[in-house]
Write a structure and sequence with these properties.
Length: 248
């Protein structure tokens, strides 16, 4: 991997949050729970804002009438819902949605205001660059059946190569990293799914060393925790991407 090594660190306090017209928020896995969207933290999100979900969106699961009704209710929300995939998605159903180019990267278009941010892409959102990479390994793998587990949850080498190429197009400099899995070292540190290693864990470790980024958000661990200086495990919290460690 020919990533350029860059040790430059941007601390939260250096970020200029002034003058942004619309807000971008990040939250963790929603697991198909509509109740999450009725909570105050999400209801306060305004028209024109974006809510990014760090995997396990869970509303593209069985294609049932009930699920479609929930997606309809979600479509009536005034903001954009942009999710990456996690380990609990129906990938066959997800892949049946059309692929589009959007803000510099590839998406699956679910509805006019719900999009799936595909793996290894770089998107321009509110003048900031977001690198996205979903998928991972299901911790409950042994309890899943052929009807509830999809091999596509595991990122492929091709997807990692796509990510490397797209990062290089941006000089390995992005503003925010959005992933479902954390880098391997953080899995160990948080004690989550420590025995499992995929290629992406090594790739993410390379990114930590070789890329410039302000913050890295990930959902897999189902906890809300700030890990200085740049990592945010997100779950129930809904954080503006501009969050400072002193706000937490
Ligand atoms: Fe999850």
């Amino acid at each position: 991997m020919a990533l350029t090594y860059d040790r430059k660190i941007c601390y939260n306090k250096l970020e200029n949050t002034q003058g942004e017209k619309n807000m971008v928020y990040v939250t963790g896995d929603t697991h198909g729970e509509w109740e999450r969207f009725q909570e105050k933290a999400i209801r306060r999100i305004k028209k024109g804002d974006t809510l990014i979900i760090c995997g396990d969106f869970g509303f593209i699961w069985d294609g049932s009438r009930k699920e479609k009704q929930i997606l309809k209710k979600m479509e009536a929300l005034p903001f954009l819902i942009a999710f990456i995939d996690g380990c609990h998605e129906n990938f066959d159903l997800l892949e049946s949605y059309p692929v589009e180019e959007w803000n510099g990267g590839k998406i699956h278009r679910i509805t006019k205001n719900i999009i799936h941010l595909m793996r290894g892409q770089v998107f321009q959102i509110e003048n900031k660059k977001f690198f996205t990479f979903g998928g991972g390994h299901s911790q409950d793998y042994e309890y899943r059946t052929t009807q509830t587990w999809w091999k596509q949850e595991r990122p492929t080498h091709q997807e990692v190569e796509t990510a490397v190429a797209n990062l290089q197009k941006h000089g390995n400099k992005i503003d925010y990293v959005i992933t479902h899995e954390p880098p391997g070292s953080l899995k160990d540190c948080l004690g989550v799914d420590v025995a499992q290693r995929l290629e992406i864990h090594a790739f993410f470790a390379d990114m930590v060393r070789a890329c410039y980024y302000r913050k890295w958000f990930f959902g897999k661990c189902h906890i809300d925790k700030y890990i200085p200086v740049k990592f945010f495990a997100v779950f129930a919290q809904v954080l503006p991407v501009t969050v400072r460690d002193t706000d937490l």
